[in-house]
Design brief:
There is one protein chain. With about 750 residues, the protein is of the alpha+beta class. The protein contains 10 helices and 39 strands. It folds into 4 domains: about 350 residues, Collagenase (Catalytic Domain); about 100 residues, Sandwich (Immunoglobulin-like), CATH 2.60.40; about 200 residues, Jelly Rolls (Sandwich), CATH 2.60.120; about 80 residues, Immunoglobulin-like (Sandwich), CATH 2.60.40.1930. A hairpin with a 7-residue loop joins strand 33 and strand 34.
Length: about 750
């Protein structure tokens, strides 16, 4: 690791246990792979034995090891080895959306180190004779796995950029032809919840887990000059110099199977150049039979008795070198069949990947983002606001894969209607409501142009306002088209209309059942995904006092039994400034969200008893003439399963309405002043009657056979009246009919007891 990254981590470590710095997580990831599959350790041991044998063959090939080692080393390393790279940027259009130029700089930095072009003037004298030159040249692929021209860079839009790690390794290219490098926003696997720069799969790990073979790095560190060269060392079977200690840096003496890197405890963010704690008097004795026969020979080599603090596989803040024996170990490892590393060097690979051809100058890929307000990671994207010619939707050009000479945005009905702003945010107001298709054309440097067009935002109609008593049934005859749904990442977990409803054949469903099957489970788990639907504006200005609630019916389940894994959530928010900002109102979690309990197959409610009533108080500041609501489903996963399978199941919602009744009342008759609640119920129920001119009300309850199980008459007063249906009369589970007679009016409602 180089000084810049280590100094940053040192500062973070000073923040306390919440930010424990762990520059490289390769050891922990490798240990996990071994725990999951003991064959990884067997493969590693066999490879180390092979590499040790190759080194001893070199030692025994000369009668004078010390005298002839340099010339033998030079002979073995004179050939430049060319390695194809594929870089996959997993992003959410945040700071992790690194530019192509940053990737080019990353490769340049990697080659500077692995071709010994970096500054080595500060290497202490005792180690100058041991400086090794890897003599590798890494090149971004010129052809993708399908033979198409490429720059060797891909981009994948995903929430998994926030610590998805193995699940974020999208777009894998065959690891026996390309070394894959994934870039994500933050590494999330650190068991101490600390700061991690990167980790890699060693050959033995890649052999058993080819789907993850390569490097994954947090975006801020791709151009620090040391992180990628360090991780590439792991890919080629180099360990941390203290590896055999089995603990972290600074804890105990260990070694790394390389003799000219003396034993060390390792160092973190320090540079004690003449550390001798583990290396004092260090030497190695080699005993071997000469190739031509004769008596067994013994060679004793005195290596430096100072640890190699400046080694690039250490965590010190002054690293800049590899040793000669590290070079030999790497070059022998890359010629090994373990994880098919040797295939990276073949002439066929050079042809398939095109790395010996000139770099491609390709047509740009047109792309744009709808930007967030406030924080780039936690702010809300400006996807839903009013078409009032005042709210500003924010767009940004994200085109890539070429030198972009110019761009042109087209915003139908927008102000402005076009923009050629290439680098900064573009602020656009709209006066026409509905879905807006945004178009962007990107022009390259003498390579042509490309165009992207997509349904990007929804502008709400400021003149379309709902009031108390409104119901949303999501049926074909209603206004569901004014309730926009956003599946931001275009994945399988999403809101969609369904033919399953509380009373009828219409409702809204969140497809939360994780239906991925092997090998799709390698990537794309739903953990951290957010999906939204929005309401139109409501005018609640007449309800500033008294009761005011959002009511709805829902049905849901989990696919797991462990309560600690039941972390899905429905988050309800509201906005009083036409979508410019959002506030939290309420949420459903655990058994409130999944009232059905555990169901291991895709869940679907089969009768009204599978549904549950919810009523949520609307805060006082939301009772305005312009309030809208957002329903956000957040998915979670089981981290202990292969593929991090989602723990939730399908979730259904129906009959969303705003009610003036006390908390817990669900208005079951659209626009009327009589309701039965809670419905369904597992206890007593009530008939609520409001603003009725009759002096009395008669309530008759019958079961499904028509048998009367309860009858009562009650005097009515002005305002709201409550008539109880005792739990004892509806204790048998099933459907009951409730008839309410007030004056010359009769209402009949279904009541479900469960």
């Amino acid at each position: 690791m180089i000084k810049k990254a280590i100094l940053l981590l040192s500062a973070l470590a000073g923040l306390g246990s919440a930010a424990i710095a762990q520059p490289c997580l390769t050891d922990q990831v490798h240990a996990k792979l071994i725990k999951e599959n003991p064959q990884v350790k067997a493969t590693e041991d066999a490879l180390n034995a092979y590499l040790r044998g190759a080194f001893m063959k070199l030692v025994s090939s000369s009668p004078d090891y010390d005298k002839y080692f340099d010339s033998m080393y030079t002979e073995q390393t004179k050939e430049t080895l060319y390695i194809p790279l594929a870089v996959h940027i997993v992003h959410d259009y945040g700071t992790e959306y690194v530019s192509d130029d940053e990737v080019f700089q990353m490769v340049k930095d990697l080659n500077n180190v692995w071709q010994q072009k970096n500054d080595l003037s500060s290497v202490i004298d005792i180690y100058k004779p041991y400086i090794g030159k890897m003599n590798f040249e890494f090149r971004l692929a010129r052809k993708d796995p399908n033979g198409n021209p490429t720059t060797g860079i891909t981009r994948h839009f995903s929430y998994l950029t926030r610590g998805g790690d193995e699940q974020a390794k999208f777009d894998l290219w065959a690891p026996d032809k390309y070394v894959n490098i994934w870039v994500e926003g933050v590494i999330g696997s650190n068991p101490d919840n600390g700061i991690t720069l990167a980790y890699a799969f060693k050959p033995s790990g890649g052999a058993s887990n080819p789907q993850g073979d390569g490097i994954i790095v947090a975006a801020p560190y791709i151009t620090d000059g040391g992180t990628i060269p360090h991780e590439m060392g792991h890919v080629m079977n180099l360990d941390h110099p203290w590896n055999s200690s089995g603990v972290g840096p600074g804890e105990a003496c260990g070694n790394d199977e390389v003799d000219d890197t003396p034993p060390t405890k390792g160092h973190f963010s320090t540079c004690p150049l003449y550390d001798t704690v583990c290396a004092k008097g260090y030497s190695q004795t080699y005993t071997f039979a000469p190739p031509g026969g004769g008596a067994t020979q013994t060679v004793i080599v005195n290596y430096p008795d100072t640890t190699n603090v400046q080694n690039l596989m250490d965590y010190s803040n002054c690293t800049n070198m590899f040793t000669m024996q590290q070079v030999l170990r790497v070059r022998n490892a890359v010629h090994s069949t373990v994880a098919n590393r040797v295939n990276l060097l073949s002439d066929l690979t050079k042809t398939v990947t095109g790395i010996m051809e000139p770099q491609n100058d390709l047509t740009p890929v047109a792309d744009f983002s709808v930007e967030r307000k406030g924080s780039q990671t936690t702010g809300d994207r400006t996807v839903y606001m009013c078409a009032d010619n005042a709210k500003e939707f924010i767009f940004k050009n994200r085109s890539w894969r070429d030198t972009i000479t110019s761009i042109n945005f087209e915003f139908p009905g927008g102000n402005p209607s076009t923009s050629t702003q290439k680098t900064n945010n573009v602020l656009v107001k709209f006066g026409t409501p509905g879905w807006i298709n945004v178009k962007l054309t990107a022009n390259g440097n003498n390579t042509g142009s490309s165009t992207v067009e997509r349904q990007a935002i929804y502008a709400a109609d400021p003149g379309y306002k709902l009031t108390a008593g409104y119901f949303q049934e999501f049926d074909a005859n209603g206004d569901k088209d004014k309730w926009p749904i956003f599946n931001y990442y275009n994945n399988a977990t999403k809101w969609q209309t369904t033919e399953t409803g509380y009373y009828d054949n219409s409702g809204l469903m969140f497809t939360g059942y994780d239906s991925r099957i092997f090998p799709a489970t390698y990537t794309g788990n739903p953990g951290g995904d957010n999906d939204d639907f929005f309401t139109p504006l409501f005018d609640l200005s007449s309800m500033t006092s008294g009761d005011c609630n959002v009511n709805f019916m829902s049905a849901g389940a989990y696919r797991v039994t462990n309560p600690e894994l039941m972390n899905d959530a429905l988050l309800i928010g509201y906005s009083i400034d036409c979508g410019a900002t959002w506030k939290k109102m309420d949420s459903l979690k655990t058994n409130e969200l999944a009232n059905y309990g555990t169901y291991t197959s895709p869940f679907r409610p089969l009768w009204t008893g599978d549904w549950k009533l919810h009523s949520m108080n609307i805060p006082g500041d939301a009772r305005t003439s312009n309030v809208m609501f957002r329903f956000r489903y957040r998915s979670s996963v089981d981290p202990n399963t292969a593929g991090r399978i989602g723990t939730g199941n399908n979730f259904y919602i129906d009959r969303i309405n705003v009610s003036p009744y006390p908390l817990g009342v669900n208005t079951l008759l659209n626009g009327n002043d009589i309701t039965v609640y809670p419905n369904p119920t597992n206890g007593n129920a009530f008939v609520a009657i409001s603003n009725n001119q009759s002096k009395t009300a008669t309530v008759v309850v019958t079961d499904v056979t028509g048998k009367m199980v309860y009858k009562t008459q009650s005097a009515l007063g002005n305002g709201k009246n409550m008539i109880e249906i005792p739990a004892s009369v509806i204790s048998i589970k099933g459907i009951y009919m409730v008839q309410i007679v007030t004056g010359d009016q009769t209402r009949t409602e279904k009541l479900v007891s469960y």
